[in-house]
Amino acid sequence: MCTQNEIMFTAEAKESITFTLNNKEYTVPVVPGERLLDMLRNRLGLSGPKEGCGAGECGACTVIFNGINLNSCLIPAERADGAVITTIEGLSEGIEGDLDPVQQSFLDHGAVQCGYCTPGMVLSAKVFLDHNKSTPVTRPMIKEALSGNLCRCTGYQKIVDAVYACAPVKGDPEEEGEV
Amino acid sequence: MYWEKYYFAQSIEETLELLKHYEGDARIMAGGTDLMVQFKYNYLSAKVMVDIGRIKELNHIRQENGHVSIGATTTHTALATSPYLQKHFQVLASGVRTIGSPQIRNAGTIGGNVANAQPAADGSIALVALGATICGISPDGPFSRPIESTFLNPGECALNSTAELITSFTFPAPGPRDRSAFVRHSRRAALALPIMNMGLWLRLNEEEDGIEDARIAIGPMARVPFRAKKTEAFLRGAKLSEAVLDEAGELTFEEVSPRDSFRGSAAYKKELVRVYLKRAVLEAVGERSVGK
Amino acid sequence: MEFDIVGKSTPLLDGLEKVTGRARYVTDIRMEGMLHGKILRSPHPHARIVKIDTSKAEKVSGVRGIITGFNVPQHKFGTMLQDWVILPNDKVRFVGDEVAAVAATSEAAALEALELIEVEYEVLPAVFDQEEAMSPDAPLLYEDKDDNIATTFQVERGDVDGAFAESDIIFEDDYETSQVYQAHLEPMAAVVAPADYDRLTLWLSTQVPSMSRLRYAEALGVCAEDLRIIKPHVGGGFGAKFEYKSHILAAVLARRTGLPVRMVNTRDEDFIAGNPRVPMKIRVKLGLKKDGAILAKDVRIIAGNGARTVYGPAITSTACYRIDSLYKVRNVRSVGYTVYTNMIPTSCFRGFGNAQMHFAMEQALDAICHENGLDPVEVRRINGVYPGYVSIHGWEIKSCALQECVDQAVEASGWYEKKKTLDKSGAKKRGIGMALCNHVSGNRPFYRPFDGSSALVRLTPEGKAIVFTGEADLGQGLNTAFAIIAAEAVGLPVKDVRTAAVDTDISPFGLGSFATRATTIGGRAVYEAAVNLKEQLVSHIAKVYDEKPENIKVRKGEVALEGKGETLPIFDVMQKVSFSLGGASLVGQGSYVPDTVLPDENKYGNVSPAYPFACHIAEVEVDTETGSVNIINYWAAHDVGRVLNQQALEGQVEGGVIMGAGWALMEEMIVKEGHLVNPKLHDYWLPTSMDTPIGKIHSIFLESVDPNGPFGAKGIGEPSLNPVAAAIANAIFDATGARIKKLPISPDKIVGALVNKKL
Known about the structure:
- The complex is a heterotrimer of chains A (about 180), B (about 290) and C (about 750).
- Chain A is of the alpha+beta class and about 180 residues long.
- Chain A is built from five helices and five strands, in the order E-E-H-E-E-E-H-H-H-H.
- Chain A has a single domain, classed as Ubiquitin-like (UB roll) (Roll).
- Chain A is elongated and about 65 Å long.
- Chain C has about 750 residues and is α+β, with helices and mostly antiparallel strands.
């Protein structure tokens, strides 16, 4: 083991972090104690990730982080170092870009009302669909996948329909019978 | 401001060195789902965070030498979606599947779930039911001890998070007659702490018509995850039948003494325990195995 | 009548910016030099403020302003009663009451300053239950209210005692509804910035821009003209976002510091200091003939107002007598007390008192049917109102498809079959329940000076239209509904019409989104403005193209000059028309003043231009061992007058049903000694996607074509929620025999009722 005063670790607390956000590379200085959500909103000018609770209980701040959906209010900004992050702004390029099929489906199905939960909801849906490209998708699976994103307007039915419509392989019985 | 410095430890050794160097000012950060909330409400302050999320050996699910080992930073999602655990350790796979939400399960780790020492933490309840051993490392060297010894009080665990590190949880490899189940009751289907949760592990007798061994963990019934030892003792050697399960449920009802909370009264929690004990056994062994 | 746009599904016109994250809400506004405002809130339910010392807080680096009750004026103002002050210097009256506010250059600095403000309190005895607050020995919240009763509503008509004497069936029972939180995803928010001419600009997340402006002017001691209110996208309201204290505090701080101030509630603050639903204790007494015809109704309501008045009194009066326009009862007596307590001030929440009364009334009818062997469908049919009915209070039902709603819901749900066959054999039992509903589309007494709306529709030189309205879209799709109305009336494609964000410098005065009024009353004004625009357009085209007005047809963005046999794009036509007018846009102006009356001192008078109706049927499965309830399927048949936007209507119904299900089964603000125990979204159990029906919510729309609504449309916002809790309660009773009369119908109450002990 080490002797006194001898520092044995090689890790350094970084002064800046580099990451890919919405297909572009960023290097930004570390602000100690910052949440990823604050970095995205306050320093990088994004409005898509919303703060609904700041405690991981509503999903409005959801981002796609290395391919999975996370609440950005619970992620230290430092953890973005080396990560690939997608916010709702990254699903379609600027104002001119085509919408992601999930975004389009939300629009077409009336899955959007006030819109405050929508960015997070769309991103959770996107992750779910990305992970289930060849699995038969059912509505209960979608409901579970979206259960970390609260919506107070829609009652979720049209949201679930919108996501279901995007599933390449559909697993619900064709006939909508009574249960 | 939450912290001043944030380190990614590259190894277990480096984690210990960092903790040692900062002499109590450093805290381990794994998934962060609980710590970040504690910071938000000023329940916690620490100058230095040591992020252990990038230490590969802490993130694993493997079977070796007759034991299963689960790395401390394995996420709930990884556990819940593991085909191996789903097949052999239903109690753990479905237990962590009900934690919080997909986003929480994608970040939260089993080590963090245990270290938080909540009496109804789903991961803890499952691991207690499995009779898991907690393995870690402290400045004095590696340690391993029964997981139940970790829980002292709600939110208080026997580990010093400014000096010690949980590395893994181990429990015996699955036997052919081992069964398990996890049941949970909450006011809503997601994003809710349980009013009652229960992990059950059974070993059937050779004829598979009775129970050879049982372990039952229930939360939140005490200051720590509760072992229903009287019920376990009753079930050991019992034949599987409706009557036995009814009696077992009655025993569990008698041996828990939960407290009233806003999530549910003590009386209601006791009612739930009676119902769910039976349901857990039925789920573990399959309805058809139970004689009338 | 055939429509090009009305009745089809039009995706929200502002949906694109929402799915791309570009939509800006108040919480997204950032400005140069913007300060962050934070509020110090009372930790006590009732206490005298002895002293406030801000000296340490002022020294925090970055602090630019601190206000307390000792450095702001102490004049009284309010929404219904004059019981608001900017900040108090005498007492705090609930946990969360505003004590001081800080503006600082960062949120962290503002929070640090809050912690350093020293307040000396003398804790006073407090009262939390509205019924206890009426007792003579209860602590008083206000010196001038010696029984804590803020207001009393009373109405009596017909011969109530005589009708009870004639009744074959007399039923009496007590019901209790809960205080619940709107849980709009965007918290209460304001950004206030000093503007030219010594004015202030307020960006508010609000349902009532114009009314807020009047109230805040009163609070700040300025003219309404000195305030400019802008309402950008709003992240849900559901009744919560009316006049709000923090908006005023932000404005005071902006004036004091001369800088923009952002004041956004944390979720915890929203929980403890929002304006949740008025809790009510409701005693219902009904007298009926043998066949179930209701002869008499006697109601007593004790409602919790909380520590100051927002809209509690109006909500109580609504609970007292609005339902008298659902059933043809001619002998009624109601008394409603709105009582101060040391609890959070309560106010509007989708349903506005009528939802509370539906919970009581529709369960009472169900119980009466069960006890007397009557068919709940038939009893509702024989009592339900009809087109042309005038209620005992003078409310005039013009359009009404209530009976058809019942027919269709009963048929679609397979009601009679299910009544016989639903499985009740195991531990999990199924049941089916029904509840009817009525509501208003506008409520004349809400804002005493008037009800009505006005709108402008501007047609640009490119032939695109912009609707200007003071009515507030909160995300429910109002702006799209207005565009649909204008597009249909003018003859434009809906994509060429948009509705501008409310800006009181530009938009007409609009009362706002409440009382399910905005589509009906606001929409009718938009319709009138569009018709006016069209007249101008046709007369200008006639001039410019030398065509007879009767030969000019505008449809789908094309102008047919039938005399000339020519069809031109509106773009080309408007270029010519506009340039002939020096580049002018055409501006249609329209107003709608409903033919309603402010009820007199006896509460008599027709309050609304149109009344929507509905019949809901819930099918549930109850786990009788654990008390868990799953909704299996749900049918909601609504008389909406006219479908303007099929998809958006369904969205309102589905949202209202799930919100109602949350109220019925899950949601609860648990308060201990005035402290909210669960001010967290993970402990306040509003429904997640996994708490929705296992099957579906089936929306059914009936078009009774109201003579007053735009194209005949009536409102949907509140009716979609009103009957839900009762329908579910009735279904649970059908499944299990457990009748739960106090919300929420939580699993412990169900199990407790079944094993006959309190759990």
